[in-house]
What does this fold into?
Amino acid sequence: MTNLPFVTIGIPVYNEEKFVAETILSAINQTYKNIKIVISDNCSTDRSYEIIQSHVLRLANVKIIKQGKNIGAVNNFAYVLEHSDTEYFCWLGGHDVMRPTFIEKTVDAFQINKGISLVYPKTELIDENSKVLNVPTDSDIDTTLLDNIKGPIKVVRNLQYCTAVHGVFKTTLLKSYTIKEIIGADHIILYH
It folds into this structure.
């Protein structure tokens, strides 16, 4: 694995022509450069795929997949994970953005504490003009010092929004769980 990128950013996309360019630029412009980006267009009916191509066509660390038919949102999220071969992985929604130091800071956190399985950011909701909305979005699901009973209970009690699913995970941990095509699949991943 020494030749492989350290972090994969998986971007599942469906009809995101309004936002996908900014999403891709936020992934490409990370201060941490040892990354791979996997983008799966889920048979969009708008110009998402063309916009993606125009931004990443010549970038060696980016893989674009255009699904032949719509495979559903959960399966599209699972698809980008399946195409990850790095130590760490994160999902970036096709309408989301990350701050330039996000990956660098999460990798630093993993290096400091080898026992953690997920590093997730403080999340801010923005409107379509990138104005930060004053809405509480974060859930306290830090289970670092808790046992196998108290940890899941804390997650169940404190998981208000599922923004933590866009954190950086140890890839082997995510791949050890079968992502099910059900409502709330993102919540189940965090419980796991």
Observations:
- The helical segments are 20-28, 48-56, 73-82, 102-112, 150-158, 171-175, 185-191.
- The first strand starts at residue 7 and ends at 13.
- The mean pLDDT is 86.
- The CA atoms of residues 57 and 127 lie 28 Å apart.
